[in-house]
Amino acid sequence: MRLDKFLAESSVGRRKKVRTYIKEGMVKVNGDVVTEPAVEINESSDVIEYLGKVVTYTGKVYYMFNKPAGYITARKDKVHKTVFDFFNDVNMNGIFHVGRLDKDTEGLLLFTNDGEFEHQLMYPQKHVEKTYFFWALGSLDEEDRKQLEQGIYIGKGKILTKPAKIEVQKCGIYKEFKHEMPARNLHNIDSDQYNQPVVSGYLTISEGRKHQVKRMLKAVGCYVVYLKRVSIGGLLLDESLEKGQYRFLTEVEIQKLLLTI
Ligand code: URA
Q1: Is residue 144 annotated as a catalytic residue, yes or no?
Q2: pTM of the entire structure?
Q3: Which value, in Å, is the radius of gyration of the alpha carbons in the chain?
Q4: In angstroms, rounded to a whole number, what is the distance separating the alpha carbons of residues 195 and 70?
Q5: Looking at the chain, which terminus has fewer C-beta neighbours within 10 angstroms, N or C?
Q6: When comparing pLDDT for 214 and 190, which is higher?
Q7: Which residues contact 204 (CB under 8 A, 6 or more apart)?
Q8: What is the C-alpha separation between 134 and 228, in angstroms, rounded?
């Protein structure tokens, strides 16, 4: 195996970073500094050191995480708490999040040290479907649904969204559903708006434009007050994971995702 691959798959850093570490002389193979990232090593018999510490090969890792609202998808932030705050007891060097969820969005977020896997899932031409459950203020008639499905303009640019799937689950007025609707973002609803229409459902998209679900629904007059990603490709969020919990993906789940791409 190549030295840079070995280090990336041992949670030392992303492939690009570990190449720099190697070139800068921070890595030794069997006691000698090696500065060539492509050098072949034997992961079971060679002793690899990074900054003087022996590196143990972990292989590729894949985590499923149930993101709670209130955390930003980033490794570090000066102001806000981040999704990495939940992984305090594991070595997350070289492990990164696959795509992003907004601070107030909940649900399925993947982490891995496999750059190729991330690339395949996020590459726009692959059209990997992501499904989101939402509650929104507003209503969706047949024409709105048709627009969401066929493509809609969501920004200043002149690019239509790719075809999407919409499934309305519940629709009615706020006072009918207020006990089911997560309270987040609803503080600005007062009693004279209790007859305001609300709608919940699933929107499946195959792109990853910024705030895409919220912007698509806004374009048809709906204001999203709750959003949760429930699936990526053939992989469903494990609902037994509490918010903020994570677990390894099973071999079957990894295969399911790979079949998607
Ligand atoms: N679309 C959004 O609007 N927000 C997300 O977090 C993900 C998709």
Answers
A1: no
A2: 0.90
A3: 22
A4: 29
A5: N
A6: 214
A7: 129, 130, 131, 132, 164, 165, 166
A8: 7
